[in-house]
Amino acid sequence: MLKHHSKITLTRRTALKIGVLTTASLVIGVSPLQKFQATSVQAAGNTESSPKQLGFSHNQNTCIGCRSCEYACKKLYKWEEGVKWRTVYTQTTEDKPKPFFLSMSCNHCADPACLKVCPVGAYTKREKDGIVVHDSSRCVGCGYCLYACPYHAPQFGKTSGAVSKCSFCYQRQDNGENPACVDACPTKALKFGDVEELKKQEGAVFQISGMPTPKITNPSLVIIPKKG
Question: Which runs of E-coded beta strand occur in 169-227?
Answer without folding.
Answer: 190-194, 205-207, 221-224
